[in-house]
Amino acid sequence: MSVTRPHLALEVDGAGAHPAAGHAGPAGDIAALTARVTTAEAAGFALVTIADAALPPPGGPARVEAGVRASFLSRRTQRIGLAPTLHVTVTEPFHLATQLASLDHASLGRAGWVVGADHSAAVYATVGLPRLDGAALRQELADGIDVARQLWDSWEDDAIIRDRVTSRFLDADRVHHVNFTGERFSVVGPLITPRPPQGQLVVLGADTLGVTGRLDVALVAAPTVDEVADRARQARTDGAPLVFADLDVLLGADRLAALDAVAPWGPAQRLRHTGSAEDLRDLLERLAGLVDGVRLHPAELHVDLPRLATGLGRRPVTGPTLRDTLGLHRPANRFATAG
Amino acid sequence: MSPRLHLGVFFTGVGPQLVWTDPAFSTHTHIDTFVATAQTLERGLFDAFFLGEGLRVRENRGRVHDLDVAGRPDAITQLAALAAVTERIGLVATQNTTYNFPADLARRLASLDAVSGGRAGWNIVTTDNAWTGENFRRGGWLPHERRYERAGAFVETAKALWGGTAVDRHDDLISVTAPPTVPARPVLFQAGDSAGGRDLAARHADVVFSANTDYDKAVAYAADLRRRLAGYGRSADSLRILPGAAVVLGDTPAQAAEKAAWIQREQVTGPRALAFLEQYWGKDLSGYDPDGPLPDIEPAEGELDPSRGTIAIEHRTGKAERIAGWRALAAERKLSIRDLVVEVTPQHSTFVGTPGQIADEWTRYVRDRAVDGFNILPQLLPGTIEDIVDKLVPELQDRGVYRTAYEGTTLRDHLDLPA
């Protein structure tokens, strides 16, 4: 329904997008994160994304891994989508697919995955893998997404039959080896985890990764509305079903000077709104004609999120799964045999 | 204070010991089943809820094995969800040191410890199994004799990162340059049965989860382990011994025995008995009657197919001799296929009796320091767990060998491990 457009997402990692926001409090402060996400849920956000990296942000404390945060949040929330960043580059593809499938089970179908592509020399050194860049990196990301999607389908929905007559717990014809062979790794499968409730998790990723056609949601970070419009058009051409624009937001322009005096924000890398909630609503309305959703990056989460919660007005969230909320259908299983 | 018993549940989530034909069997992969189980155990003041791991779905002759319960979540992900709906119980994840990156796994375990407020544990397992390796980047890369070396280096790396020390280590077993994780100190569990495993446990583990449940074996095992501990300069109290055990309770001894017999019949069904032999014969035996004599055809050449899971090193060779031994045993005792499989399947020790009987037995074990407690392997879900919490726990409390309330908040507190 058009009234829910644009869908709203919220980035909740750290303390906020403005450099003066500092770092999130004590590293293990899951209580503060839980409070933010329940606020976002009550305000009608469709999903939160949880940024992450194997290395802490420069000068910041070590982080709790985003998949663990999302899973904890799955039992403290009821409707909101939960999309952690997991990096294809420095993980085992099989573990990554299992972890995400498990998050979808724990949240009863509210999981998403923000495709991470960390490829600095320092991040590769944490796992001792050879560094990839350029075309090799794009291939690795494509392989990582492809194998995850195949593994999520490796159990058909009705694979567990519990048939007392034949003593069979499973129908072995409905649990499949994927026999995936990528450029740098291969995976036989099947997954150890039955098919996720959504069938396929919602896969989100930047339109700059070179894998737009494999995403469910392309994330576009561009500093002007015109550029967002161009890139969104391109992402749709490349096959992304949905496009979200990234947007920095600071409500109350009078706060900007004080924050900038501590640490200047620097030029915008994505759309940026500093001003009133009313002007933000106008901007969202304008963006609704260009993109399907907007991901907000509050300047200071503890200040801007409560203002967003009251200033945007409550928005209907359909659910119960994240796919339902975003209007994405539940895909058929690629391995299912007809009849 | 007299010694107290510590209890955990080893929730494998898969395998032949789980009786899925039980009409009350819970949907084993649904999050609600896990939540209900963990909350019941917390009501029973258990030390830990313990998830197993298997990184490849079991097969029989190249096809997914269809007779056992299969399908389970990623352990750390699931336990992070359970951390949100429990307050005290320890949350232990089985995780493999062969098919994980040390800094990545250390970070995920530290994260579980952080969100649970110090309730995380890690059951350290290794594999050299190339069949499992087919799901991972490096494949079957680690020779059998080096897997505990890798595990030792892996654990040292994890402990350093949890303790605030960066690691820069590059050799043929480990390659990692990484900064510390969030501060964490997960409790380390180890099966600790083989010599390599006992040694790893004596160096690093806080808890061993061995199969030595028989009283005399348990006493000998405890003595051996405490000797090894001393060799590493550790006190006897720095390691808890919690062997795996199955428990079948009944209101009367006869009722318990009847239930145990029913469980065993359900665990070794005719098709399962045939599938067990097929793994050894390497041939289709579906034409044989499980209640009839052993197959008269000769087994395939070659040793065991590893696809039913990790095979202990002593079972990787000598297949022909083993089958000859079974034939002799079956002939001598006139055993059917199913009888033979019941006879030769490795069973975890089972305590069968009334709550009072088992409480008396366990009180003796713990007072003699033969064990510090048990890690219970459920066979009925939720039956085993509800029985123990509602019937056995009160009997143990009456004997003064089990807590009546949680005193601390962390898993380390519950286990009375040195700070």
Automatic annotation (TrEMBL), chain A:
Residues 21-263 form the Luciferase-like domain. It comes from the Bacteria. SUPFAM superfamilies: Bacterial luciferase-like (SSF51679). Keywords: Flavoprotein, FMN, Monooxygenase, Oxidoreductase. GO terms for molecular function: monooxygenase activity. The keyword Chloroplast does not apply. InterPro entries: Diverse_substr_monoxygenases, Luciferase-like_dom, Luciferase-like_sf. The keyword Oxidoreductase applies. PANTHER family: ALKANESULFONATE MONOOXYGENASE-RELATED, C2H2 FINGER DOMAIN TRANSCRIPTION FACTOR (EUROFUNG)-RELATED. This is Monooxygenase. The lineage of its organism: Bacteria, Bacillati, Actinomycetota, Actinomycetes, Micromonosporales.
UniProtKB/TrEMBL annotation, chain B:
It comes from the Bacteria. The keyword Flavoprotein applies. The keyword Flavoprotein applies. Keywords: Flavoprotein, FMN, Monooxygenase, Oxidoreductase. Pfam families: Bac_luciferase. Residues 28-366 form the Luciferase-like domain. Belongs to the NtaA/SnaA/DszA monooxygenase family. This is Oxygenase. It comes from Actinoplanes palleronii. The lineage of its organism: Bacteria, Bacillati, Actinomycetota, Actinomycetes, Micromonosporales.
